[in-house]
Amino acid sequence: MEVLMDTLFYDGQCPLCAKEISTLRKLQRGNLIFADIHAQKNRKGMLPDHEALLRRLHLLTGDGEWVVGLPANVRAWSHTRLGFFFRPLLWPVIYPVAARIYRNWADKRYQRKYACGTCEV
C-alpha cells in the first residue's frame, strides 16, 4: 500500500512559523513534506499565488487537494502523535470560533510582516 505524502507550505521568514515547523519536523511520522514559500517557483499556476500562500497556511494533500487555514494546520498536526489534540478545532460547535481566531491572527501576522507599505512580498 502506497503512503501518500502531504506538503505543508509555510513562511520560512516568520520566526513563529519557523518554530512551529521545527516542532512539526521533530514530531511528524515521515509522511509530511515541508516547503518554504519563499523557495518555491510557481510552475505554470500549479501553486496558489505568493500572497495567498503568505496570508494563510496551505497544505497540498497527496491526492492533490488544497487544504487552507485552520484545517491545514489540523491536518499537518495529524501527522504527529499529538494530532488528536487538534481535531476538536474542526468540530461544528468549535470550528466557527476557532476559524475566526485563526483568520484574525493570520491577517494581523500578514499585515505586520508584509503589508506595511515598505516591505516587499
Which tags fit this structure?
DCC1_Trx; protein-disulfide reductase activity; 4 strands; alpha+beta; DCC1-like; DUF393 domain-containing protein
Protein described:
The protein is an alpha+beta fold. The protein has one domain (6-113). The chain has five helices and four strands, in the order βαβαββααα. The protein has helices spanning 15-27, 50-55, 70-77, 83-86, 95-113; strands at 6-10, 32-36, 58-60, 66-68. Strands 2-1-3-4 form a four-stranded mixed beta sheet, covered by helices on one side. Strand 1, helix 1 (15-27) and strand 2 form a beta-alpha-beta unit. It starts with 5 loop residues before the first strand and ends in an 8-residue tail after the last helix. The mean pLDDT is 91.
Set down the secondary structure blueprint:
Layout lengths: L5 E5 L4 H13 L4 E5 L13 H6 L2 E3 L5 E3 L1 H8 L5 H4 L8 H19 L8
Protein name: DUF393 domain-containing protein
GO molecular function: protein-disulfide reductase activity
